[in-house]
Amino acid sequence: MTRRYFVNVISAAQTKARPNVLFVAVDDLRPELGAYGSRHIHSPNIDALARSSTMFTRAYCQSALCNPSRASMLTGLRPDSLRVWDLQTDFRSTRPDAVTIPQRFRQEGYRTVGVGKVFHNIFPDPLSWNEEMRIAGFPFDPDAVYRSEGEQAWIEERKAQITAAGNAARQMDRYGEWYLKSAATEAPDVPDNAYFDGAQTDAAIAKLGELQGAGQPFFFGVGYYRPHLPFNAPKRYWDLYDRATIPLPVHPQRGLGAPLMAGNTNRELRGYRDFNGAPRPDQGSLSEDQVRLLRHGYFASVSYVDAQIGRLLGELDRLKLSDNTIVVLWGDHGWKLGEHNSWGKMTNYEVDNRIPLLIRAPGMRAGVCKSLVESVDIYPTLCELSGISAPAGMEGSSLGPLLRKPDARGKSAIFTQFLRNGIWTAPDGIEYMGRAIRSDRYRYVEWRNWKTEELAARELYDLEKDPDETVNLNQPKLMAELAGRLKRGWKGELAQAR
Questions:
Q1: 60 with 354: CB under 8 angstroms?
Q2: Cα gap 54→70, rounded to integer Å
């Protein structure tokens, strides 16, 4: 059967009245920001945006991994519905008729433009955009770009080794450009646009000027790579912090009674040459110097991206577009900075699944919302705010009521999941799916063998008494209740609320 993608014929008067959308996605950004109560972070621009937005303090992604998180948010469908749980699956191969947020806006007469990492970087989606911008001088996937002489020399030497071994093709991206990782951190004294996030902000600022004069509402997706590893940022942002006074992880030990598959393997960090000998969380810990270095690098990267977001929003103001533009800032998932003796995302813990979410909409007052909300709620929210009908089958709920009244009652629970497979397989060599329900007070997780679906382990945390999830509780009656709710899923919670 032939699939049909259409663009509605919308009158000029209709489109002119509709708000623009500036959607800002930030990779690996956990809500450790000034606006969220962190006093050691320099994030003045995101903090300023938060003061003029509704700030959601208990927002959660659907999976603590880039591809399933982004695919879920952008389609309004949960990972199990999309059948996207890993980094390798393009949602267009499993749900080809899914309509993404920018695709829906494009159908309604919006000009849709994307730059940077909005979708997962290896799966650009031409159906979503009128224009996908590339930034000259950067590879297709500009994640691991190095600017210091030492790191560039190492990369050139590594290229020569790979070429001599006849393995060059496997180290190239789809445009034939080298993709190599060196050290996990870098702090050269270079301008902001020496790295991709600064360069793309230059391009995004120029694009805003074009969009302003186009006479058409726009949906502009701008995706930032930092603070994803490697923690490469200009020296000026490192200089904002004194490494000796950077706070250490609150809970740097593996949780008491936590099953082996509950923690990640540190595989992501071990992909960098200076940490390729890092132990798995069940085998050992990093040194304090290493911990401070990585936390310093993450914080510097956050401040670097914060500065770029400030520039972008400043241009929105200068062009007098702010009054008619919905601004969304979203982090695709959290990131462990030594908590649970781990580094990276890829678990069902609170620290990996709780995200920053800010929404500023014309006509809406600023406020703080403490209700439980999910990434899948963003799609129907943007449709409601823009006067666009959402596609049938959305698996989230519009946040419109909470934007109008931040202290209104929200969801009774949210749902997250993580598939520990492939290179992220648990240390016992078995692949597991972990599905979790997070209620107002508790998080309950079931880990099942991915092949047999046999229950392998359970977790229960009292987030009121133990917010850092340090002790896996054994309370059979409560676990049975939460297991029933987890089985019924989000539809069951929705039906119960009605």
A1: yes
A2: 21
Amino acid identity, residue 196? F
User: Which positions are annotated as active-site residues?
Assistant: 66, 120
The 10s digit of each residue's pLDDT in 347-404 is 999 999 999 999 999 999 999 999 999 999 999 999 999 999 999 999 999 999 999 9
Furthest C-alpha separation in the chain: 65
| Neighbour count for residue 496 (Cβ, 10 Å) | 11
Region of 393 please: left (phi>0), alpha (psi -120 to 50) or beta.
Answer: left
- Residue 6: is its pLDDT beyond 90? no
HSE toward the beta carbon, residue 49, CA cutoff 13 A: 31
Neighbours of 61 (CB within 10 A): 28
